[in-house]
């Protein structure tokens, strides 16, 4: 991948209903020398567009390469400057020989489905799972990761303890505003932010809409163009295009106001307990028999065994 045209083609080739990963080759030096790895995300708060998790890694001995590239607090950089830095990471010899990266693009549809399914996954869980998955992928690809630095999701102590349990042989540091403290996290943040920006630029509407990112803005609820999109691009029956995170309160409230009313059957999660009457089968079961735990597949779908058919 040597240009933004390559990045655009790659993104457009993927299914924007779910999530997908884009990654660099692992530099040879990252396989032989101990490396540090940074983790950060982009697009956690917007009502439109994907959330992107990014990691970047490089040898501990080559950390000055990050400073040479200009990796700093990505929030303090302009969009043009972030593009410039990522282009250097993609094309310049020194960067190609020392820096590896992976980005996971998590679609609005995936986020909303996770938050709305019966066994709900919060945005924090989606985020943490992505971070853990990307670290594992870097290791599986052969990178010799010894230190990990993460921009916090929730309380730093709890997050750090979880990562340390999963990766006991790696030094884990979780900190608030880590992208302004650790250049390797800044590099990860730039990978994530630029990937998200360009994912929005080439977003493909499967619903047949003819518009680009200039028509719907940044995706943040306070953006006037985003507000206009949320207000106008609504179908009374089918709701919003897949660009919208329909689990966000901004979208939920507009759906309640403008879409057709829907009634959903409420599932009673409470097991039906009789008033102490034992079934006849209980007299033939071993008293110390442990109840078998249902597989996660059945729990998430509220499936139970039924042997009484008419």
UniProtKB/TrEMBL annotation:
GO terms for cellular component: ribonuclease H2 complex. Residues 267-290 are annotated as: Disordered. Manganese or magnesium. Binds 1 divalent metal ion per monomer in the absence of substrate. May bind a second metal ion after substrate binding. One of its GO terms (molecular function) is RNA binding. Keywords: Endonuclease, Hydrolase, Metal-binding, Nuclease. GO terms for biological process: DNA replication, removal of RNA primer; mismatch repair. Its EC number is 3.1.26.4. SUPFAM superfamilies: Ribonuclease H-like. Residues 34-260 form the RNase H type-2 domain. InterPro entries: RNase_H2_suA, RNase_HII/HIII, RNase_HII/HIII_dom, RNase_HII_hlx-loop-hlx_cap_dom, RNaseH-like_sf, RNaseH_sf. The keyword tRNA-binding does not apply. PROSITE patterns: RNASE_H_2. Its cofactor is Mg(2+); Mn(2+). It is an enzyme of class 3 (hydrolase). It catalyses: Endonucleolytic cleavage to 5'-phosphomonoester. Endonuclease that specifically degrades the RNA of RNA-DNA hybrids. Catalytic subunit of RNase HII, an endonuclease that specifically degrades the RNA of RNA:DNA hybrids. Participates in DNA replication, possibly by mediating the removal of lagging-strand Okazaki fragment RNA primers during DNA replication. Mediates the excision of single ribonucleotides from DNA:RNA duplexes. Belongs to the RNase HII family. Eukaryotic subfamily. This is Ribonuclease. It comes from Euphydryas editha (Edith's checkerspot).
